[in-house]
Each structure stands twice: as C-alpha cells, then as structure tokens.
Automatic annotation (TrEMBL):
Native source species: Paenibacillus marchantiophytorum
NmrA-like domain boundaries: 2-257
Record-given protein name: NAD(P)-dependent oxidoreductase
One Pfam family of this chain: NmrA
Amino acid sequence: MIVIIGATGTIGSALLERLVDLGVPARALSREPEKLRNQIGEKGRSTIEVASADASDPESLRRAFAGASQLFLAMSNSPRQIELETSIIQIAAEAGIKHIVKISSPAFEISSPVAVAGWHQEIEKVLSESGLIHTVLRPYAFMQNLLRLAPTITTQNVFFGSMGHSPCNFIDCRDIADVAAEVLINREVSGQVYTLTGSEIFSYPQIASQLSTLLNRRISYINMEPPVLLRNLMEHGHMPPWLANHVVEIQTMSTVVPESPNDTVKRLLGRAPRTLDAFLHEYVENFR
C-alpha cells in the first residue's frame, strides 16, 4: 500500500490521477477527507482509500501508516517544514514504511542561498540517516506557478519579477507526478536522487512574448529590484513574509546560478516532458 501525504496539492492530486489510471491502490491522507473524496470522484474510489490525518497529529499518522509499505511525501512549504517532515519520517519508520518518495527542491546553493532549499536539505539528511529506502525528487520551477501571474496579466497586460533575462528551468507538475508514480512502482529506479526539469529553459521576457502571441495582445514583463519585488509581493500579493522571501530568493538564484535542462524525465518515463508552449495553450483562458 502506498500512502500519499499532499494528496490535495498540485503534484499529489496529479499523482492520484496517475495511480487511478494505472489501477494502483493507494491511501490518500487529508484533514478534510470528504473534500478529498469529492476530488477523487467515482472513478478513483475503487482504488483510492481516503483517510483522515493531520501532519501535526502523530497518532493519526500512525493509524494512517498501518499496513503500508511506501510513503509519498509532498507537503506545502512552510516555516514548520523541518519539524513536521522530520516527525513524519520518524513515525513512518516506526510504522514499518520501507520506502519514502520525497518532493524536495533543487540543491542548496551557497552562492545564492534559498532558505526553503536549506529546509529540504535538512530533511534529506534525516531521510539519509533513517535507514529507509528513499527517493528524492528535486523539481525546478513549476509551470503551474505561472498561473499566479494571471491577475495582473488579465487586468494590466503585465507581470513582474526580478529575474531579468535569465533563463529558468520549468517543469509541469504532472510530469513530476508521473515520475513519482514510476519510482513508487518500479523498484529498479527507486532509491536515487533525481533533479527534474522540462526540456527547455525560458526567461520571463520570452514567456511574455509567447503569451502576447497566444492572447493576440501585448503582454509585458517588468523587472524589479529584489527589495521592490519583495515589498510588492507582500503588499499587493498578500504573501506572508517567508513566502515572499522565498519567491525573491528563487528568482535571485536564477540570475546567479545558470540553469539548464536535463533529460531525467525522458530517461525515467520514456517520453519527453510536457512543453511550456503546450502548457500555455492548455491554460490560455486563465490569462485572458
């Protein structure tokens, strides 16, 4: 049995869909089980069991892990990341889980530190010391996060950032989910650390150009200095300070540490990853 933590998240929900298509049984955890049952729908109820659990409630996790051998761990980033995931790993080991697949972040860069990457680095260390088989997935920027740019694109035909013309790796969360399913099902490729990207890199000005063509109107990218972007994200994007800092740190890192795509998704799945062009076409209505 595979237990899914993060089943309502972007990656976790796509993983559930993939497991349903493959007919692989899983137990999905949620603090709102009825909401998750509605998300899964009739199709998934024959293979997906929904259990009530809370990451901060050890006893609920012990019940949820009973009889399971694998755990998919994809929690939303938060200042409690290290505390919660460390506890989950310890409880999983005690409950008899043999293999954990963790969604992490690209490797921590000393030259341009990202605090959240540092959190994941600490959790990966706990995994390494746990004695459990573990597979770590380190995806780069999610294409789905581009949808957060939609409000100013739809109302002002602009979006903001601090990456300048630096190219960035993007990956569709559904490809991350497909890789997660593969390493959960195929033991031959488990127990490794995989950095995941799409097949191309794009700068924000290039994305603005693609959107302009798709929407048949001019979309502009406005570059800001990091402190200005930080203030904008908190005041206008209503982000908590830690999250706004995270966004700015990621974009700053892109200007300092060159990014380039790899072929990991293709090697693991036997197909090319989804393209940014296909993603923008699929979600074009969100930007109108």
